[in-house]
Each structure stands twice: as structure tokens, then as C-alpha cells.
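Input (structure):
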């Protein structure tokens, strides 16, 4: 029964992670900790994070391949983000060693609540002002609408480092911060932000998972059960994303974050 549950967790995490650009860890990590609290599996926050990051490699590959076919990945911007998120992921894996289960859940829950708050007020925030040295890009959607977005390199590198650190620390892929930052601060169209986020998460997860593997923080049997669902979920989430409007996409992302955050904080305090 536990293996069936893990397969379904991988599928749900892969689908929602690919759909929202979160990477899937926001589902996998809490689910593993919950199964541990019910004594169904033996898990620590460190192993939950390390195993989640390993799973996100497969979700990331599956989702990124699908998004590349849809031509919604800004890989040039993605590589720039990764140049800082990669080192951040290594720092995050080192910081993760000091967490116990309860404190881990509480900090993760409050972080997710912060992200959901940013999404609520996103209409009142303006993109960072861009100087002449900034990068400006454009994206043409399937309906012919042209979106213009852009950023300065230094803010991107700072945010990407923090995202990578949170990825290594919490095992959630960092997309729960990266997607809102792309939408709110740099005016990325939501669908483009999600697709590009999955590309960045794929690269960061590779770096973070290697660090956790070297520390012995991966349960290979649990990973084996999670991988098939994560792979198919990554493709499924990308297909669903293509059929949703930007408004619906942001609304679902916001609702998902709030529900997950409340549950994590409650479990951490009890």
C-alpha cells in the first residue's frame, strides 16, 4: 500500500509541479513527512528534501521537454538564473542539516504563505525599473498577443541565488518563489514563467540532489516508487498548462500555496 501511495504522490507532485512551475517538491516533501508521522515510512527532513530533489530531476526533464515543444521556455534567461541558483542550491543543502521535523515544517509553511501574499498583491506591484544596461525580451503567445518583459542582471542573480538556496534547503524546487518573482518583478507572462521555471528547477535540482546524495540524504527505494509518477505527471502538467488561461493559472497557484502552507504550519506546531 505504501508503494502505491508513493506512486500517486509522485504523479500528483509531478503534475502540479509542472503545471505551476514549482517542481513538485511542494507536494512530495510534505507528503513524505506526513507518511513518516503516521509511521508508514522512516523519514527525516533531510532525507525528504534529498529524495524530493532527486525526483524533481525526472519531473523537470519530462516537463521541460514538453514545454520546449510548446516553445514557451526562455532558455537564455533560464541559464542566467541558473548561474546563481546552482551555487545557491549547494549552500541550501548545507543549511538543511540543522533542521528537525517540526521546525522544518513551520519555516516552510510560513515561507509559502509569504509567496501566496506576494501573489495576492501582484497587481499593485510594478516591475523593477530597467536601465539601458538591462535585458528586454518579448514573447508571442499562440493567440498572437505580444508580451514584453525584462530585467537587470544583478537583481536576477540575487533572486536566483536565494531561489537555489531555498531549493536545496526545503527541497521544493524554488519555483514557489521563482514564478511569482518572474511574474511580479520582471513582467514574465505566467505561462512563460512556469515553463522557464521548470527548466531552471531541472538544472538546480541536479546540483542540489548531487549534494544531498553525497551526504547520504536520499532514500533510493522511495525514489524508485516516486519516479514513474513524477515522470508522467511532468508531461501531464505541461499539457494541462497549455489549456489554462493566465488568470486561472495564477489563481490555482495561489490557492495551492495557501492550503499547503496552513497544513505545514499546523503539523509543525502539533
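Output (sequence):
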Amino acid at each position: 500500500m505504501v508503494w502505491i501511495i508513493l506512486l500517486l504522490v509522485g504523479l500528483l507532485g509531478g503534475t502540479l509541479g509542472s503545471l505551476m512551475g514549482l517542481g513538485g517538491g511542494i507536494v512530495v516533501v510534505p507528503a513524505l513527512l506526513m507518511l513518516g508521522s503516521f509511521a508508514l515510512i522512516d523519514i527525516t527532513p533531510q532525507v525528504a528534501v534529498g529524495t524530493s530533489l532527486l525526483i524533481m530531476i525526472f519531473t523537470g526533464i519530462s516537463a521541460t521537454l514538453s514545454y520546449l515543444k510548446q516553445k514557451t521556455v526562455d532558455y537564455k534567461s533560464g541559464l542566467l538564473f541558473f548561474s546563481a541558483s546552482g551555487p545557491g542550491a549547494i549552500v541550501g543543502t548545507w543549511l538543511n542539516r540543522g533542521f528537525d521535523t517540526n521546525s522544518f515544517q513551520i519555516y516552510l509553511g510560513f515561507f509559502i504563505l509569504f509567496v501566496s501574499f506576494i501573489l495576492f498583491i501582484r497587481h499593485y506591484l510594478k516591475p523593477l525599473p530597467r536601465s539601458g544596461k538591462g535585458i528586454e525580451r518579448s514573447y508571442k503567445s499562440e493567440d498572437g498577443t505580444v508580451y514584453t518583459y525584462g530585467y537587470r542582471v544583478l537583481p536576477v542573480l540575487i533572486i536566483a541565488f536565494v531561489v537555489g538556496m531555498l531549493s536545496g534547503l526545503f527541497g521544493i524546487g524554488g519555483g514557489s518563489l521563482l514564478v511569482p518573482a518572474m511574474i511580479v518583478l520582471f513582467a514574465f507572462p505566467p505561462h512563460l514563467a512556469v515553463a522557464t521555471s521548470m527548466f531552471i528547477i531541472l538544472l538546480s535540482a541536479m546540483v542540489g540532489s548531487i549534494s544531498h546524495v553525497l551526504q547520504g540524504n536520499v532514500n533510493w527505494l522511495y525514489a524508485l516508487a516516486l519516479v514513474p509518477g513524477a515522470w508522467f505527471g511532468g508531461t501531464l502538467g505541461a499539457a494541462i498548462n497549455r489549456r489554462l488561461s493566465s488568470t486561472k493559472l495564477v489563481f490555482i497557484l495561489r490557492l495551492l500555496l495557501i492550503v499547503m502552507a496552513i497544513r505545514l504550519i499546523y503539523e509543525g506546531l502539533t
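Notes: The first helix runs from residue 2 to 20. The longest strand covers residues 135-140.
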